[in-house]
């Protein structure tokens, strides 16, 4: 099910970077939900970034084709599309037989034999626009249940001219009840990990205290229950435990504390300098990137992190 | 599908720590595979640890009930069980109404209302024995394809008397071809992340350079293609790239380089000292642990990491 | 998912006719359900038939291994097993290289290459015992919701000495609400059809008026709404429509009327007379059946029909 | 997964009869398949029927949005859409609060509370256009493997003025190998049954000898192996058995003989005469149909039967 996320609140995405359109289908959204177009436009705008954030300037007009009648969901599939308006892909002709380093060109060729080389094809970051649409609908559903999802850039690599940077995004979920999740293989933290690692450039994931917890002693790590007197002094701790090293999930199930996790992203792999590519005959050839490439994608990725988190939670509570 | 892992090579596990048995069903294993009983016994022994590794001394005798005829798999479900031989659970009577800190007692109660409090019930680490059986069968299948999976403890927390430690386990997969995996939501790295985060105590996951990659520049992070002359100098790099910062997966699909990932585990949360528990009426009560508790589970978890990795890869290539 | 039925209330079965055991795992049953052992024993007894109903006389002792604590379900997987007590399978030695006509011997060999030829192996009707266990648990759940499932033999083929017969079983579901089911591919009638056609020997399925509806005019077929005055005259029609030609399902969703469907079963294909078999080299060889073979399985299949119906409904409402 | 068919070769459909578009996404089609546009147009034309076959005259222009590059599939999702060009739905205003007899109006209202009443909404037969697109792609894939699927109207109800008729469609699959299918719950015949019963108006399904087999003796029903001399006399019987009462599937797995099954369809339930509807307050109100309604849909349904059969087989062999 590589193009479908979720089992109850499901998002299927489709589309290549330089095909006719990208888009998706949300299946499993309950009937009667009011669609908030402003939220959808805001989320798309967050992903698109401000002026100069990406060199691709086409507006991402989302057209909803089904599943909504008079502003409310019908419980039937919500299909949407975003047409690709920039048709000129001649920039990419020289890449037809080249595998760029760090990209998925080579692995797609190994996996499928036949591929669309233009702008990364299906592997393009442009696919995340469809995730943001699905995530916005999930957020509308979660908002009705009082659940809030908010991510931010926690740290950024050092910027350098003609180079690129990565960073870490932290996401916090609040307003949800205890008891969300499943044991064993369906753990909420495992589903969040899969959701985050499915985002392009993601290379690490941790809950709560994360990798630092590996070096703690049990007595340092363990989240102790709040006493009544403690609760008075710590009004912001959601009233259950004095610390939140576990990140709000125990045994795969939420305990009601904020769910906190971080995702590490490696730097953009296309850099504005001559690049050695492998060709399909095994030779090395130099290529000068002229396409549209961000130097840092972290700020635009925040809303994608939120979208995937919203889809994950909606799959449990939707 | 919280008790089932995989979609093609599937493992379903069952069982509570102090019920009649734990066990599982492997569905989707091809017919004709020779079952290597020695490997199975060895893997169970690795999980059980050496003398003193766990205070629970019962032998884990695995009985295979179906799916095998004259030493070969039939392509039908392989059911197995491990009877729980120590029946005395009176140690746990005082925990009937208590939620221990750091454990899943509270979240299971919130999720299911009704629970088996004895020894962690379904949330007990004992469930991982069933994963090791499934993983051993997956390893037999992968071995026939030349694929090898090997994990080790990379770092351990500092030991302290009457306390507990966690650590980091690194796993390396070799011998697989390029082209394993799927794009978008079915990425091999996302499935590995979910597999690892489903292991009890897992709190972080990273591929290749991991969180460190977030602070690298693109020119430092990017894995450049090997030149022929480079290949001569670096015979161990599997002939594709000069570094392996991505951990062997690009765009969710293996590139043929070793697949390398690390999982962080928090310390054991039961510590041999008086512990404040929450009871079902919201009061704090002190409990003195007398059960069977390891001070460090990392060495026993290595084979569980390998088992989950084997199940993940078998699901793609099986 | 060939050995698993359902997506929310799931039954996985395992076991070969002459292996160590058959059994299964029910996953997705809610926590807190009281297990009615008497019902379970009764259902097993209905499947086993009265004296002489089957030549296989071993008792089907069901052992539940997990998922139940102090008589109630835990919400965790309910694993169960039935040991195969008759170990002598030498009766079947001569069948090692023979494909009996009408059986799945040949198709299993084509599908798996390697097979267990003893007593039909995995294809044996004995597998349905595991379905009856799963169905009994589903019935306990449905009974709490007031839903009742009852099947009966509607017609039987004419009995003949040294021959075998099939027949038709009708099943009626009552006490359920309107609104159960899904549109398009998840139609309740489609799921019931798949459930019934998965039973050994099933060869036809129809809802309500069934095949006869194909020859009706629309004005004859269409179920008209009851008037108030009609309701007075037809107190047994569940108050919605004057007829029930659709069998209680419209657009894949229940309308609250009784759900009525029929399943046709072909006769038992092993007959007590010399039989021409195909061998693996393509030659015809004569075999004299000496195993355990019913002449008519319809009465024993009634409870299997109910079990599969219960599992289907539980998957929607559980 | 009510809007998705299949687990490996998957079709998801979307769209309401009077929304902006209907369409779908095919996921799991292998890369490199040549798309035959003529076949696609032909199939759509078969569904649309000849002049006068349906009163809805808009052309069904299929636009493929993704998954295809230079005439070949990429292995990525193939999204397609058919815009709904007739926007005037005022014909349906009077149906906003009415439940027509025989339709899914009432059951959708019970299932979803909120619904699109125009032209049947999601329950409209128009949704089958998306199935025909998916089926056409499946047929292209099967054709490469030499597998052929052909259906025909076997019998029709008697036509009558101002009334409607149903009938029976028979479908035959040839050119496939033995060994397709799965045992137990994944039986090929069970999947075909679910596929057929998911088609609007389907009310019965049978394989091979079908319901007639229920009245046969075992000696009449059983398909005996061909002898060499028999093969000479019966060159058309595919060389395995002398009869094909089982319809080409044994134990859920194909035996290589033609796969033969029949589906019964009840008559169209909208008839050109005053009709008593239920309103949402429980009163009976008379409605005069003025919309677009076929008197017999059987000829147009033949290609839908083939499409669902092709999708079913592609899910096993794709």
**Helix/strand order of chain A:** EEEHEEEEEHHEEHEHHEEEEEH
- The coarse overall form of chain A would be globular
Helix content of chain A: 10-25%
Strand % of chain A is 15-25%
State the largest interface.
A-B, 100 and 100 residues
Provide the CATH topology of chain A.
Chorismate synthase, AroC fold
- Cα(first) to Cα(last) distance of chain A is 20 Å
Sheet with most strands of chain A: 5 strands, antiparallel
Tell me the name of the CATH homologous superfamily of chain A. Chorismate synthase AroC
Radius of gyration from the alpha-carbon trace of chain A, in angstroms: 21 Å
Mean pLDDT of chain A: 91
Oligomer: homotetramer
CATH class division of chain A: Alpha Beta
Count of helical regions of chain A:
7
The strand order across the widest sheet of chain A is 1-2-3-7-4
Q: Helix/strand/pairing class of chain A, anyone?
A: alpha+beta
Number of strand elements of chain A: 16
- Write down the domain tally of chain A: 1
Which CATH-level-2 architecture of chain A? 4-Layer Sandwich
Stretches of chain A where pLDDT is under 50 for at least 5 consecutive residues are none
Key words describing this protein structure:
318 residues, alpha+beta, 16 strands, Chorismate synthase, AroC fold, homotetramer
């Amino acid at each position: 099910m590589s193009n479908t996320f979720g089992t109850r609140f499901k998002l299927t995405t489709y589309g290549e970077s330089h095909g006719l359109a990208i888009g998706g289908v949300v299946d499993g959204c309950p009937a009667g939900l009011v669609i908030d177009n402003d939220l959808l436009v805001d989320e798309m705008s967050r992903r698109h970034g401000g002026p100069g954030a990406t060199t691709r300037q086409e507006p991402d007009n989302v057209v909803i084709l089904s599943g909504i009648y008079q502003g409310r969901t019908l419980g039937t599939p919500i299909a949407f599309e975003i047409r690709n308006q920039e048709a000129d892909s001649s920039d990419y002709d020289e890449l037809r037989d080249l595998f760029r380093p760090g990209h998925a060109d080579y692995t797609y060729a190994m996996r499928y034999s036949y591929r669309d080389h233009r702008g990364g094809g299906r592997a393009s970051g442009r696919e995340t626009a469809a995730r943001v649409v699905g995530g916005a609908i999930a957020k509308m559903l979660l908002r009705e249940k009082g659940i809030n999802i908010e991510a931010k850039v926690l740290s950024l690599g050092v910027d350098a001219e003609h180079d690129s940077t990565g960073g870490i995004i932290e996401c916090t979920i609040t307003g949800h009840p205890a008891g969300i999740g499943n044991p064993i293989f369906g753990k909420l933290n495992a589903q969040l990990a899969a959701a985050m690692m499915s985002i392009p450039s993601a290379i690490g994931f941790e809950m709560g205290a994360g990798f630092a917890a590996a070096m703690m002693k049990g007595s340092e790590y363990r989240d102790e229950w709040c006493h009544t007197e403690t609760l008075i002094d710590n009004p912001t701790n959601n009233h259950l435990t004095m610390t939140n090293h576990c990140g709000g999930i125990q045994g795969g199930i939420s305990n009601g504390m904020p769910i906190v996790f971080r995702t590490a992203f490696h730097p953009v792999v296309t850099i504005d300098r001559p690049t050695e590519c492998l060709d399909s005959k095994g030779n090395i050839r130099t290529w000068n990137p002229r396409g549209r490439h961000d130097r840092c994608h972290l700020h635009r990725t925040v809303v994608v992190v939120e979208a995937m988190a919203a889809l994950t939670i909606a799959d449990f509570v939707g």
